[in-house]
Design brief:
membrane, Kinase-like_dom_sf, alpha+beta, 8 strands, 50% helix, 6-stranded mixed β-sheet, serine/threonine-protein kinase, binds adenosine-5'-triphosphate, single chain, transmembrane helix, 502 residues, two-stranded antiparallel sheet
C-alpha cells in the first residue's frame, strides 16, 4: 500500500514536457482551467437568459388583435351559425341591399347634409394630427394636454407612465404598472366574494365591489375560468393591457393569477353605466340631460379614438355597448372591458361567443362575415349614440314591428323628416335643432352599412365637438348640387337660427 502510494507520489513529481513542470502542477492547472471555463459558460448562459427575459415585453405588442380575427370564424362555424344569427335579426341580413344604401343617401339629404364624399369628410373632421393641435381631444391620461400618448414598448417610456400612488399593497407586477394580488388579498377586499358585494355578472365573469387594505374602492372581475391559458401568457397580456391609459378608459389596477383563478382588479366607477341610466335602475336617480348624454358619448368617442388611432398597435374593443360605458360622479364616460376580448380570445365556446359582441350593436359585416376591424367598433358606437339620443334599446321586441330595430326606425324617421320626434321624450329640455342634427348625422355616418364610409373615431370626436351648424365646405358642395338639397340647407339654417337664437 505504502509502496504504491510512494510510487504515485513519485509519478506525480516527475517532470513533464510542458515547461518542465511537475505532473501534479500540470493536472492542477488543467482542472482550474476547466473549472474557470465551466463557470464562464454558466455566467454567459444566465446573463443571456435574463437579458432575453428583460427584452420580452419590448417585443410584445399591446395586444395582438389581428385585423381579421380567427376566433370569430371559429364561432361562426361552431357556435353561432351565421344564418341563425342573421335570420333571428333579419335586419343585418338585408342591410347590405342596394335599396338600403339608397335609403341611407336619403337620410343624409333630409338631415340637410347630403351624402359626404371623401373630400367632405376631410374638411369636416380633419386628421387625427389636426386634433392634437386643436386641443388634444384624443390624448391619453390627461385629456386636455394636447399630447397623444403613443405606446412605445421601450421599457423607459412605460416605466415613466407607470401608476401607483397606492401604498401598502401587494407586489408590483414585473413590468411595473400595477399590482399582482394574491387570492387572499382579493378575498379580504371582497368579503370572501360575498353575494352582497356582487355588482353584476357579464359574459366574462362576476364583478365584485371591493376595498383594498389602503381603503381604495375597486371592482374585481372574477373570470369564469382559466380556459387553459398559461399563467405567464395571461400575465404578459394583462401587463400589456394595463399599460393602455386614457381618462375615458376604466383603469386596470392589477390582477390575480393563482391556481386556476384569474381575476382583474379595476378602479371602481361609482355612478352606474349608461345602460342603467337610459333603461335601468339608475333612472330612479333622474334623467340624463341632453348635455350629459353628449358628454358621455364624446368621452366614449375619445376613448375609442385613443384605442384605434393613438396607440400602436391599435386595440379593437369588439363589444361597445351602453352597459360597457361606466359613468363617474362628474358624468365622465369610462369605457370598460377593452382588451378582455384579446385576453380571453384564445379560449373556446362561451368566451369566443362573447367576442361576437352583443346583439343589436354588432356591425353587419362583422355578423355576416366574421371580419373584424375598428370599423365594427365605430358601428357599435353609432348604435350607442342613437340609443342615447332616443332612449330606446337597439333592439326592442316590445315595439311595433317597424320600430323594433333602432337603426332602421331612425333612418325611416329621418327620411320622413321627423327627426325632431326621435329625441328621448324623458329629456325635459330638448336639444337645439342644430345639436340634434349634429348628433344624428354623426350616428348615421357611424352606422353606414358600408364600413369604408364610416368616419374614423378621431373624426367622430371632431364632429361631436364641433359648434358649426354645418362645415362650410359641406355647404358649398351642397349648393353646387342644388335642387332639393338647397331647400334643405335653407330649412336647416332657419331651424338653427330659430333654436339657437330664441
Ligand atoms: N370598474 C367597475 N366599476 C364599477 N362597476 C363595474 C366595473 N366594471 C364592471 N362593473 C359593473 O359590473 C357589472 C358587470 O359588468 P360586466 O362588464 O362583467 O358585464 P356587462 O357589461 O353587463 O356584460 P358584458 O360582459 O357583456 O360586457 C355591470 O353592472 C357593470 O356596470
Amino acid at each position: 500500500m505504502s509502496s504504491s502510494g510512494s510510487s504515485l507520489k513519485q509519478h506525480l513529481s516527475e517532470k513533464t514536457d510542458l515547461f518542465g513542470l511537475q505532473l501534479w502542477v500540470v493536472i492542477s492547472i488543467t482542472v482550474m482551467i476547466l473549472l474557470i471555463f465551466i463557470l464562464t459558460v454558466l455566467v454567459i448562459c444566465i446573463n443571456a437568459q435574463s437579458r432575453r427575459r428583460r427584452r420580452a415585453p419590448n417585443r410584445l405588442p399591446v395586444t395582438q388583435i389581428p385585423a381579421v380575427s380567427k376566433e370569430i370564424r371559429e364561432v361562426r362555424v361552431e357556435q353561432v351559425p351565421a344564418n341563425d344569427f342573421v335570420a333571428s335579426d333579419g335586419i343585418l341580413l338585408t342591410i347590405h341591399d342596394k335599396a338600403r344604401e339608397n335609403d341611407s343617401d336619403k337620410v343624409m339629404v333630409h338631415l340637410g347634409l347630403g351624402k359626404s364624399r371623401p373630400a367632405d369628410s376631410n374638411s369636416l373632421s380633419g386628421s387625427f394630427h389636426h386634433t392634437e393641435k386643436e386641443g388634444g381631444s384624443l390624448s391619453g391620461e390627461d385629456g386636455n394636454s394636447g399630447i397623444v400618448s403613443v405606446y412605445r414598448p421601450a421599457s423607459s417610456s412605460y416605466r415613466i407612465t407607470a401608476p401607483s400612488p397606492l401604498t401598502g399593497l401587494p407586489e408590483f407586477s414585473h413590468l411595473g404598472w400595477g399590482h399582482w394580488f394574491t387570492l387572499r388579498d382579493l378575498e379580504i377586499a371582497t368579503n370572501r366574494f360575498s353575494r352582497e358585494n356582487i355588482l353584476g355578472e357579464g359574459g366574462y365573469g362576476v364583478v365584485y365591489h371591493g376595498r383594498l387594505i389602503n381603503g381604495s374602492p375597486v371592482a374585481v372581475k372574477r373570470l369564469l375560468n382559466n380556459l387553459g391559458q398559461a399563467e405567464k401568457e395571461f400575465r404578459v397580456e394583462v401587463d400589456a393591457i394595463g399599460l393602455v391609459r386614457h381618462k375615458n378608459l376604466v383603469r386596470l389596477l392589477g390582477y390575480c393569477v393563482e391556481g386556476t383563478h384569474r381575476m382583474l382588479v379595476y378602479e371602481y366607477v361609482n355612478n352606474g353605466n349608461l345602460e342603467q341610466w337610459l333603461h335601468g335602475a339608475m333612472r330612479q336617480k333622474g334623467t340624463l340631460t341632453w348635455e350629459a348624454r353628449m358628454k358621455i358619448l364624446l368621452g366614449t368617442a375619445k376613448a375609442l379614438a385613443y384605442l384605434h388611432e393613438a396607440i400602436e398597435p391599435k386595440v379593437v374593443h369588439r363589444d361597445i355597448k351602453s352597459s360597457n360605458i361606466l359613468i363617474d360622479n362628474d358624468l365622465n364616460a369610462k369605457v370598460s372591458d377593452f382588451g378582455l376580448a384579446k385576453l380571453l380570445g384564445a379560449g373556446k365556446s362561451h368566451i369566443t361567443t362573447r367576442v361576437m359582441g352583443t346583439f343589436g350593436y354588432v356591425a353587419p359585416e362583422y355578423a355576416n362575415t366574421g371580419l373584424l376591424n375598428e370599423k365594427s367598433d365605430i358601428y357599435s358606437f353609432g348604435v350607442v349614440l342613437l340609443e342615447a339620443i332616443t332612449g330606446r334599446d337597439p333592439v326592442d321586441y316590445g315595439r311595433p314591428v317597424h320600430e323594433v330595430n333602432l337603426v332602421d326606425w331612425l333612418k325611416m324617421m329621418v327620411t320622413n323628416r321627423r327627426s325632431e320626434e326621435v329625441v328621448d321624450p324623458s329629456i325635459e329640455i330638448k336639444p337645439s335643432t342644430r345639436a340634434l342634427k349634429r348628433a344624428l348625422l354623426t350616428a348615421l355616418r357611424c352606422v353606414d352599412p358600408d364600413s369604408e364610409k364610416r368616419p374614423k373615431m378621431g373624426q367622430v370626436v371632431l364632429m361631436l365637438e364641433s359648434e358649426d351648424p354645418i362645415p362650410r365646405e359641406d355647404r358649398r358642395n351642397r349648393r353646387n348640387r342644388g335642387g332639393s338639397i338647397e331647400i334643405d340647407s335653407q330649412r336647416e339654417n332657419s331651424d338653427t337660427d330659430k333654436s339657437d337664437n330664441p
